Predict the 3D structure of the following.
Amino acid sequence: MITVLFFAHLQEMAGTERITIEANEMTISTLKKKLAEEYQLKNLDQIMFAINEEYANEDDAIKAGDIVALIPPVSGG
């Protein structure tokens, strides 16, 4: 099982702050496709992904037990 955490506006778009996915392994790219299809999340290419608190790339593997955080861009002044 993989846990996915949503932050900021992504929580509103997904309708929850976290989900669990029944999978043993997938890549960030595969996860993006799944989230776009099942939760209608858009512009995921502008979102940073972290696996177990370390930033991840498109082809990084997510394994069962991992926690993936979706971190939207931050702006401020």
